[in-house]
Specification:
By secondary structure, the protein is an alpha+beta fold. It contains twelve helices and ten strands. The chain folds into two domains: about 170 residues, Regulatory protein AraC (Jelly Rolls); about 110 residues, Arc Repressor Mutant, subunit A (Orthogonal Bundle). It has a five-stranded mixed beta sheet. β5 and β6 form a beta hairpin. α2 crosses α6 and α4 crosses α5. It starts with 15 loop residues before the first strand and ends with a helix.
Amino acid sequence: MNAGFWVLSATNMKNLLIPDDLLSDQKQDGDILILPYLSGKESLKTKLTLKCNLFTLLLEGEKSVYYADTNTKIDSSQFLLLSAGNCLMNEKTASENGNYRSILLFFDNKTLSEFFIKHPLSISKATDLDKSLIVFQKDPFLYNFTESLRILLDSGQKLTSQLQRIKLEELLLYISSKYPGQIMALHNISREANDEIRIRQAVLTHMESHITVEELAFLCNMSLSTFKRRFDTLYGTSPSKWLLQQRMKKAAELLRSGDLKPSEIYYGLGYENLSSFIQSFKQIHGITPKQYQLSS
């Protein structure tokens, strides 16, 4: 395994910000991060602030975790999902001269939201919805999955953002089929994630509908100001600008196909009349729909 990124002593009571304090001079690339972790020392009640959610795939040793609402202890036959927030953590080596080893897989609520949009759940009952952590028992697949990550990390090659995303999705998809109650709990692991899922599903579902921003806020059970604020956090722009850009992107795709006239597509993109559609198209593309189609 690669050199350890994080070594703590039992007397170190600094409040650690994770994963930032693991990276040292390295820069996190993307919103998913997979790291090896190696320590030859035990740590007791280390104060951690997790900036994002974390799968801890334990290879050697024991781990105890304490949240305000729950606590647990695991060995290398198990692994943990920890939600973002504050916790205390103990790490115990496998033997007096042994090591504590694990693989850490970080991901944020945006990534989680995108997964559930891509892979909708049809589960009516969940377990431990209000818990800050979930314990999983390793089975042959999960042992092999952990080993596949270890081999990748041992190779010394940097894991690309795309590969890290694929490995996370592989794990989440397997848990979805094997542990449906737990994956539903993961679906509800934070209110923030639920709000993100609701907003993303609403705008993607109604992107081409005749629906206003006020109506989208209502569907998301939010005030208009709250909806706009959270939308801006997710997409970096206002709902009206984002919808305009997405609708005009779709319009351009339809016009490039050459099979449909502007008068045949405007209503399906959420416009009541052709003139409003032409005005919006010129605002984004600088030319009329007909001019765009002729130049394509």
